[in-house]
Amino acid sequence: MLPQICLPLDEDPCPVGDEAMSAVYRAGAQERDEMIAGMSPTARAMLALYCYRRGHFQELGMKLAAECEKDELVRWGGAIVGAALFERAREPYDPRAGAPRHYGRRKITLASAAPGPRIVYEDIED
After folding, report:
1. How many domains does the chain have?
2. Within a domain: residue 41?
3. Which of 34, 60, 84, 89 is the most exposed place for a label (fewest CB within 10 A)?
4. 37 DSSP 8-state letter
């Protein structure tokens, strides 16, 4: 049976406990590297996919994915997502790469009143 990877974010459970996730997230670079190295390949791949799908954990997801074998990421993320994450994790990390691509779009502006004569209404008493 293949794992479900297309769950909505709020139904996608974290593959490690809250305490473990918090420890990895808050650890310094060296301590984090040691924690990542100590994870099983399956846990590392699942956590990489979980973190990458969330903006505030995306950089951590990339670090985890960089330490994963392609087979594990494909197993848990699917042929397209897992393979793409594997390739992307081997490139220099750019936090803007996952951002929506709206560069070059024109700004939306509100219409302003057209120039011309102004109509003034006066109060008339009956």
Report:
1. 1
2. yes
3. 34
4. H
